[in-house]
Here is the input.
Amino acid sequence: MFTKILIANRGEIACRVIKTARKMGIQTVAIYSDADKQALHVQMADEAVHIGPAPANQSYIVIDNVMQAVAASGAQAVHPGYGFLSENAKFAEALAGAGVAFVGPPKGAIEKMGDKITSKKIAQEAGVSTVPGYMGVIEDADEAVKISNEIGYPVMLKASAGGGGKGMRIAWSDDEAREGFQSSKNEAANSFGDDRIFIEKFVTQPRHIEIQVLCDTHGNGIYLGERECSIQRRNQKVVEEAPSPFLDEATRKAMGEQAVALALAVGYASAGTVEFIVDGDKNFYFLEMNTRLQVEHPVTELITGVDLVEQMIRVAGGEALTITQDDVTLTGWAIENRLYAEDPYRGFLPSIGRLTRYRPPAEVAAGPMLDNGKWQGEAAPGAAAVRNDTGVYEGGEISMYYDPMIAKLCTWAPTRDAAIEAMRVALDSFEVEGIGHNLPFLSAVMDHPKFMSGDMTTAFIAEEYPDGFDGVVLPQGELHRIAAACSAMHRVAEIRRARVSGRMDNHERKVGALWNVRLQGLSLDVEIDADQDGSTVRFEDGTSLRVNGAWTPGDQLAEMTVADAPLVLKVGKISGGFRIRTRGADIKVHVRTPRQAELARKMPEKLPPDTSKMLLCPMPGLVVKLDVAVGDEVQDGQALCTIEAMKMENILRAERKGVVSKVNAAAGDSLAVDDVIMEFE
Here is the structure.
């Protein structure tokens, strides 16, 4: 077995590999760019080597730079993680030439299956059902439009060497095909150093289900169940779970056997994933094979008990699999939510900056114990596990140069409903400040009836949030629970303020029992009856709720129990109350005495400034190009400019007709959030 491994990656996946290597007694070497000098993976590794400037195309995907780091460190093997060079056959070949093991599949398998165009052809020759498409390389936008018309709209333009949603666009018309071709080509070049694009039919209403395979160099291959990855935004997976709530055992077996047969046909050896789209009748169609470790691999590990990174390392070391197909048992249910540095209230555009607060929920191991690749025994009733794979820390910076994923939050429980409930609590307990992030949106998805039922497709986000995400309006029952908790918390804070030292004699302030709570349009009069164990909060309609939980003024997380059910609140102080974030909602809660509430109702409402005649930059980024000039008349939906951030190009469009009166930016400018790009008459 190896004694030293270099991880040719960064962020959470580098940290993930380091954890397993450490468990196996293997030393680790991190690589880092200028932007990652203080990164968590650098701190965790036994040693680290600098490989270049911040942009990935000058550091992490420069094979010569990585090979120099391998030579300098004396590493015997390299784990590529996902993205970057993980599916680059030239990198695998360079390692082989240097006598260094690649913790991944053989070069030939990467060439045949890692390239989406080649893998489609192989699948077709093997009799695997595939989605109609054009597998050749497309030279220019005109050819892309011609091919799109031959296939029939809608079509998907995809980067041949791509992954992670980069270099992918859906086109419904000639204009969108032409525009999408260039953007996909640019993103592919920047992310993978390969700008080849292919086109396939976009199948509407599909489910995205993938099979995890594991093969060795001795001709053995198994599948470890499936992952449901249908909840996607811009072709980027957001929520994954294992197993799928849709598949039956017969379909799972057929997909698994087909995936293994395809892998063995190309001499595959390592962990890999075969992706399918599945229609409502459980017909499945091969999409592509990812010849690497998937981002969402933790959910498979949680339901099978198999450490995929460890298995990859052992296979790379020449060991045979010790797990047979009969050993693979799917136990319980696992959910993964991807926490991204993106602002859901601004169309999910990337957000960068410093993490002024980063407090993930405590990781908890629970459920049955693993022994030699098998689950042993049954999970305890109510058992749940929490796992957080991350590559950041409080005080660290989210860079504009890399993927915006902050962490992968996972929960496991004996049933799907229990895993979802554990995820709700974990999301509410996750504290992130300093940047925009998608925690509120993830919480909203966990409570969405369609997700809870398991009846979703890849169109879930587009269908359920067609106008974007603007927060959650909680049901009245939940608002009453929040009101009860906040009134009890406010009373505690008032008692502390009343006991301030140095007050004048005979000026002691009494804290009353009657309060008015105003939140999300509700005005609730309550009476608090407190005792040593908690408070009973009575509402004017005669109902009451019992509140328990230790909260101290200044705490930013309140873990309460209201009406015998957990309630986790992120708490911020505002004048006369709290800013509360829970279950995807961001609520201002004002707690006042009856007289204060009476006076507050007479105060005029403050209106936000009018920015309707301005184009504001929705996220920090670089101006790639401007499509209009002063004096131009623009139409609804017309492209105004393109902003690049975190390897993604974002086209900003006009919301209505107008005439450009002023342009404040030029191509190449770096802009901050809400910088005025242009103004209109």
In short: DSSP finds 17 helices and 41 strands in the chain.
